[in-house]
Specification:
Blueprint (H helix, E strand, L loop, with lengths): L5 H4 L4 E4 L1 E2 L2 E2 L6 E2 L8 E4 L5 E10 L2 E8 L19 H4 L2 H21 L4 E4 L12 E5 L7 E7 L15 E11 L5 E11 L4 H20 L20
Antiparallel strand pairs: 1-5, 2-3, 3-4, 5-6, 6-7, 8-9, 9-10, 10-11, 11-12
Helix pairs in contact: 3-4
């Protein structure tokens, strides 16, 4: 009898690379990989479920590791370097600087909305205090399936919402994707969420672009199932 490996015992998560030689295999059907899929790696538990997906990309100040968690367990990252100071702390609190970053975000999101306007509905006038999920939202244009990428502005406590000159101190975001349940049905659920500070606007724009590109690909290729699985213990996650 073969000795159990750390993958078998659950001591280590098993990595599965999405792309090999430019080909990705979702559900056993090979196809050419999209640019956003390169470098992505799933890490699966011993019960076959995917705990997290990550990729590492170049950033202005080094490299950025992007992690999408698919389960609720706490993730502790050990050994990373402390990030360099991107901006002076006083500048980060400066309203003029934050205004410039807000305008960069607005321009970046608007460009994404225009680029993918045939498949994606983009709104930049949402009111989170009413019924909108965010100040900025991306949703499928012709399909009401509950999926969305939403960004909400964050303000200092006590900010007057009637003040048209108010400037956010940061942004929160969330994405809802179709998740396949064990009974075979699909449901839109929050698959990732986080916060962004003014000096890290580029990463938020990149995340929104990635979600939009993946959603457009899903809408344009309905015969391929891109939805992640939520599996009970013992059920294998279909390979990509």
């Amino acid at each position: 009898m073969a000795e159990l490996t750390p993958y078998d015992t659950g001591e280590r998560l098993e990595p599965h690379v999405w792309v090999t030689n430019g080909i990705v295999v979702p559900g056993g059907r090979p196809r050419f990989a999209e640019e956003s899929e390169f470098g992505r790696v799933d890490f699966d538990a011993d019960d076959g479920t995917t705990v997290l997906t990550l990729h590492v990309q170049r950033a202005d100040n080094g490299y950025r590791m992007v992690v999408d968690q698919h389960r609720e367990e706490y993730l502790h990252v050990v050994g990373q370097n402390e990030p360099p100071m991107l901006v002076d702390p006083a500048l980060a609190q400066d309203a003029e600087y934050r205004t410039r970053q807000m305008m960069l975000l607005d321009a970046g999101l608007s460009y994404i909305g225009k680029t993918y306007g045939e498949d994606i509905f983009y709104a930049d006038d949402g009111d989170p205090t009413a019924f909108s999920l965010g100040n900025y939202t991306f949703q499928p244009l012709m399909v009401n399936d509950g999926t969305v990428f939403a960004i909400e502005e964050a303000y200092e406590r006590g900010t007057d919402w009637a003040d048209d000159e108010r400037v956010p101190i940061g942004w929160t975001w969330l994405q809802k994707d179709l998740v396949r349940l064990p009974d075979g049905t699909q449901r839109a659920e929050i698959t990732a969420q986080g916060e962004t500070i003014p000096s890290d606007i580029d990463s938020l724009i990149d995340r929104a672009r990635t979600w939009v590109e993946q959603t457009v690909r899903r809408l344009q290729t309905p015969d391929i199932d891109f939805s992640p699985y939520r599996n009970p213990p013992g059920r294998d996650t279909p390979s990509r």
